[in-house]
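Supplementary Methods. Inverse-folding protocol.

Structures were first reduced to a discrete structure-token string of length 617. This string, shown here, constituted the complete conditioning input.
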């Protein structure tokens, strides 16, 4: 960016030129004589080097984040600087020792660069005024010893996360911290390898923490009670090898004691224990509890005292029995309940359940029974309903699903539902995934799948912020393209799919389905459908997977299907189709198994000649 010449700026104190595509030459020409500057904000530009800054010796605040800086030599001349943000640049190699000369620093951010090598104890020895240290998201190695920070009295925020080869030792020496941390993130490092992955003991002295993230740090053993009861608002310990939580019996706790813990994530560990019903008694403020992917056994705890709980995830454990009615009773504000992949039984929903606030209900791969009428008719906020592979049964009546206008994911496959597919599905405005497979639905495929929302599906599904700014990465497993695939992130947002396979559906395939232009996967296999493949399938421009196998379809294969340029999986096996199989475009990639079981089909793909009348000359 070419900078105009300015005059009369010799007494300028603060300069903000963020996100302006500025380069080194332009900045150098502009700031050369601004020797009185105390604050310089040039984040989000295109700066490569720092030599132009060396004469601005009055600077106290420097923000050069989100540039492409390769070195810091000029910055090291700024002996008065107190705030230095160099995050998200192209810094590489070791941390330049010259930064240790900036004795007045209270804020240092060099996160998300390409720094390598060890963190020097000598560097830290000279920067004892630091309140914030952010070195996360690099490739730092070696050992970082916490006792190096013993003389830091003002340190409040420390981030060393996402340095997978960095070993952090907190127990090598006896030391007492002078600081009181407010936030600590050591996730995706290796903690206390020489002490068998012990949880850092110094945390017992930190009484002002608002957040602790020790996820994926190779921690082992027991979570001490003081870490849960006394400390942080947010405690993230997922992805370790923790096997037990030290619980304090409620009767031993001070009656006036109320934990400040709002978010507790212990998912993906090896915790083997029963969660007591009074587990949440000290946690009146708890909003988010994730203990999924552990070895928990026994029943689902009632958590009756957790009146602030919004998100509960106990999926992928060994829990048995029924869901206690008090878990989501009157007054509950629970929005997300995830109990999939356990061995839970009993009716769904339990009696006296409050369903009005539920947004995500995920109960797949259990043994729940009963029908879903009350869930579907009273859960007006539902966006995600997954009850696949249970023992649910009954008829889903028309109009029941229309009360949940925001439903984006409806997964009812692998149960014993029967009757007609409800037309209420067609009044939904946001449907992305519909799985009714492997049930006993009968009657015709609804012809109402043609509403405007199906031709312009809003892409609303995304990672949602939960309490404490925790983000749950939504994912959906869906059978398409002949295999079970997991969709998350952008592929989840862009995916639209219908699976009505393995039912008892009859009649013809309704023509309006062909107008679902954004539909990417359609599976109508293993039914009793008759008639031709609709000509309207010409308009399924985004279709990637189309399975019509194991029906009684007749007629020829429409040639226009070869124009579906994204179609990578196609199966019409075991029908009554006839005529020549087109051999062009996408159809040239399909193998013979996609067409087997149709005696009257012919063509190069199945190595069967088509008999044609002799042409008269």
């Amino acid at each position: 960016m070419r900078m105009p010449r300015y005059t009369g700026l010799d007494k300028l104190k603060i300069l903000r030129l963020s996100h302006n595509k500025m380069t080194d030459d332009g900045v150098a020409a502009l700031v050369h004589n601004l020797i009185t500057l105390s604050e310089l904000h040039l984040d989000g530009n295109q700066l490569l080097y720092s030599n132009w800054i060396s004469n601005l010796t009055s600077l106290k605040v420097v923000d050069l984040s989100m540039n492409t800086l390769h070195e810091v030599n000029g910055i090291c001349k700024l002996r008065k600087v107190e705030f230095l943000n160099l995050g998200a640049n192209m810094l590489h190699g070791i941390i330049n020792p010259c930064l240790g000369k900036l004795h007045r620093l209270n804020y240092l951010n060099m996160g998300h660069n390409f720094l390598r090598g060890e963190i020097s104890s000598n560097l830290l020895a000279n920067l004892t005024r630091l309140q914030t240290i952010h070195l996360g998201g690099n490739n730092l190695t070696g050992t970082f010893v916490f006792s190096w920070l013993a003389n830091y009295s003002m340190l409040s925020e420390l981030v060393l996360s996402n340095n997978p080869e960095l070993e952090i030792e907190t127990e090598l020496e006896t030391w007492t911290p002078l600081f009181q941390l407010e936030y600590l993130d050591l996730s995706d490092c290796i903690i206390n390898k020489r002490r068998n992955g012990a949880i850092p003991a110094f945390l017992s002295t930190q009484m002002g923490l608002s957040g602790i993230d020790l996820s994926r740090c190779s921690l082992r053993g027991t979570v001490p009670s003081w870490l849960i009861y006394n400390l942080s608002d947010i405690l993230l310990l997922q992805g370790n090898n923790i096997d037990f939580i030290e619980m304090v019996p409620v009767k031993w706790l001070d009656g006036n004691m109320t934990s400040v813990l709002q978010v507790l994530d212990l998912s993906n560990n090896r915790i083997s224990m029963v969660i007591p019903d009074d587990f949440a008694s000290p946690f009146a403020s708890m909003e988010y509890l994730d203990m999924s992917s552990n070895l928990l056994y026994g029943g689902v705890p009632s958590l009756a005292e957790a009146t602030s709980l919004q998100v509960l995830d106990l999926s992928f454990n060994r829990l048995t029995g029924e869901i206690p009615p008090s878990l989501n009773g009157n007054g509950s504000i629970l929005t997300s309940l995830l109990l999939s992949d356990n061995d839970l039984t009993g009716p769904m929903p339990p009696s006296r359940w409050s369903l009005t606030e539920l947004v995500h209900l995920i109960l797949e791969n259990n043994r729940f029974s009963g029908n879903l009428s009350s869930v579907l008719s009273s859960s007006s906020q539902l966006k995600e309903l997954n009850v696949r592979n249970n023992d649910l049964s009954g008829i889903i009546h028309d109009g029941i699903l229309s009360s949940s206008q925001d439903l984006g994911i409806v997964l009812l496959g692998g149960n014993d539902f029967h009757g007609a597919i409800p037309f209420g599905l067609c009044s939904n405005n946001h449907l992305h995934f519909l799985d009714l497979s492997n049930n006993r639905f009968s009657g015709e495929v609804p012809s109402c799948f043609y509403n405007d929302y199906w031709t312009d599906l809003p892409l609303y599904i995304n990672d949602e912020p939960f309490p404490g700014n925790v983000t749950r990465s939504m994912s959906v497993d869906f059978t398409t393209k002949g295999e079970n695939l997991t969709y998350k992130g952008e592929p989840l947002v862009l995916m639209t799919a219908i699976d009505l396979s393995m039912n008892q559906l009859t009649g013809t395939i309704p023509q309006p389905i062909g107008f679902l232009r954004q539909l990417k996967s359609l599976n109508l296999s293993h039914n009793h459908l008759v008639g031709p493949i609709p000509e309207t399938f010409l308009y399924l421009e985004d279709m990637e997977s189309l399975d019509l196998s194991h029906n009684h379809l007749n007629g020829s294969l429409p040639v226009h299907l070869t124009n579906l340029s994204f179609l990578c999986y196609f199966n019409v096996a075991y029908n009554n189709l006839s005529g020549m199989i087109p051999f062009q475009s996408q159809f040239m990639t399909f193998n013979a198994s996609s067409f087997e079981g149709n005696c009257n089909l012919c063509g190069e793909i199945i190595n069967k000649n088509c008999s044609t009348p002799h042409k008269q000359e």
